[in-house]
Each structure stands twice: as structure tokens, then as C-alpha cells.
Amino acid sequence: MCSLLNHPRIFRPPSSLVISFSSSSAFPMAYSFALPSVSFKSLSFTASDSLTGCTRNGIRGFGVKNLSRSRVFMSVSVGSQTIGVVDDLFFANYKPNFAFLFPGQGAQAIGMGKDSQSVPAAADLYKKANDILGYDLLELCSSGPKEKLDSTVISQPAIYVTSLAAVEVLRERDGGQQIIDSVDVTCGLSLGEYTALAFAGAFSFEDGLKLVKLRGEAMQEAADTAKSAMVSVIGLDSDKVQQLCDAANQDVDEANKVQIANYLCPGNYAVSGGVKGVEAVEAKAKSFKARMTVRLAVAGAFHTSFMEPAVSRLEAALAATDIKPPRIPVISNVDAQPHADPATIKKILARQVTSPVQWETTVNTLLTKGLKKGYELGPGKVIAGIVKRMDKGANIENIGA
């Protein structure tokens, strides 16, 4: 039993307060009602309990029923102050059945977004994006030029919007809403974590896009301050790649050190660091029996300390953003765990740009926990390829836009 109301962080309420419950629809709907008094010991919910009896036009009363894919969160408002009461470990024992997985930077391609324009809700996302970004995002997605679309400041918003447009494309498909309603866990590769949080209702589409815009700009600026790069090492396990990094680091100064930045899947790990360090990795890879190395077309050494200058800007933007507990588990890239507490989510998102991406652990955990089917939503099929590499029998479908 995971009690939200008997947690040590919870205070005893005053005689008059407002309690808000968030539902678990595709985009959560909040309901509020006043109570003259509440005994905190009288309300306790497990991770699979849900309030019932709420309607779109008001409250019909409530009871508790067990729904395997529902989550309930509470916040207590006293005057103008809202005090969160969500235990960050609320999702700790999640059991995945159906997952949405969202791609990260590198998935962009000329022509993405065009197929979604026949769906009004998807087309509307691009119109909203234009107002926030200050340029025609759909034009860049559909026509390029490629060099501009591939830039960090453009590709990150482009993938975020196109991935959420893919959700709307799916929604229009026969049985699509039923699939969306069935999803009980979500995650995304690096940038895709923001998309996953938006889908899970942690923040609005607009707020998420503003964060992604700033993230891309901050990462580009951090990359511009030092010569750095990323390279994929193919054909080695993570221990061997670490040994390769150690060997490369013996040949370069501190400013050019490298590290594993992205644990994608067995046999495919991305290494980030100074340009000379990356060159040393490339030169030594064959002696470590690597099948090949592939220099990545990114601005710099993402997910390492080279991105430290971006952290303070992200922290400030996240502090000013209204983030709510997600309605379903969203797996973090930093620790491959879901988090429910908005304050913790903000800290993790700020740390994410300097922390190695634990994608291999994330996917392996989903598969081990019995994932029935995954859906990759957005441009490209990188994630589907990773999942299939880890489990040839895995059931994963790509939904493009």
C-alpha cells in the first residue's frame, strides 16, 4: 500500500480547504471541491486506485475503484498556496502493459510532419508552435534545408512537435483512442523525455515546447564554448567501451576526456567528449575489436559535463514552469526510474543534459516487467530498432507523422 496521505511530508489540514484530484484521461482534467474538514487518515490510495463518480460538468460524488491503468494525485490548496502531497515513489512498482516511446535528436528527416496535416488536431500543434518559436516549423520539417533542420535549436522543437502530432494521427485512426487510453507507461530518448512528460500531462504542450526551445538553444551555446563531439561505437559491450574510453583518456589532456554518454543497447553506445578524445576513440576502436565507429552529427558532447553551462538556464526555466505529477509513469533518462514529485522531475530534467542516458536499462526493465506492446511515435524508427535488437520477439509499432 502506498498511502499518499500518511506520508511524512503531509501536514494536517486546517478546517477549510480545497482538494484537487487529477483524472487519468489522455490530457488530465482536474476537479476541485470544498470540504469543511478532512481527516487525512481516512483517505489512502494504492498505486492502482482511482476516484470514481467525476463528470466533465461537475462532481457527482466519489468512491474508490481499482483500475490497473489509473493514477490519482492530490494537492491541497490553503488560500493561494498549493502544497503538493505526492510521494515521489508513487510509481515505483509500476507494471507496464502498453508503452509510448518517443524519439530523440537525430530522428529528424526532411518531410516529417507532412502526413499529419490531414488531421486537424495535429495541424493545430504546428500552428501553435509557430507562435512560440517565431518561425514556420512545418516548412522547415517538410522542406528543410537539411542543415537547418539538423541544427540543435531546430531539430529538438521539430521532433517534439512531430512526435505529439503522431499521437493525434493515432487518435484519428480506428481504435486509436482505445490504444492511447491503454498506455500505462511512457518514456523518451533524451529530448523525447520532454515529449513523454507532455503526453503524460506533466506540463502543457505549449510549456513543453518553450522548455525544449530553450534546451536546444542552451545546449547549442554550451557546445559553442568548447570543441567537443560524439561518436557511436558499434559492436562492443559497455565494459569494453569503457575500457576504450579509459585508453583514449590516457592520450589526451583533461579538457578532451571522453565518457559513455548514451547507453543505447548492447553493441551500440555513444561516447562524448573533447574532439581530440573522440578522435583517440576512433583511432583505437579497431584494436578493441569494435565493428565500426560513426561520428554523430550533433553540436557537441551532449550528456557530459561539457553541457554544464546549459544547466543553470534550464533550472531557471524549469523553476518558472508549472509541472504536475504525471498521470502515468514517465521513465527518466538519468536513473531509468519513474518520478511523481514535480520538484524531483524539475531537478532531473536539469541534470539530464549532463548525465549519461540510461536507455538500455529503461528498455530492458520494460521488457523484463512484461511489456505487451510498445509504440514509437514520431519521425524515424530508431527506437523500434533498439527494442528489436534487445528482444527480437518484442511487439513494437511505429506511428509516424
TrEMBL record:
Domain Malonyl-CoA:ACP transacylase (MAT): 101-400
Domain of life: Eukaryota
InterPro entries for the chain: Ac_transferase_dom_sf, Acyl_transferase_dom, Acyl_Trfase/lysoPLipase, Malonyl_CoA-ACP_transAc_FabD, Malonyl_transacylase_ACP-bd, Mitochondrial_malonyltrans
Protein known as: Malonyl-CoA:ACP transacylase (MAT) domain-containing protein
Source organism (scientific name): Hevea brasiliensis (Para rubber tree)
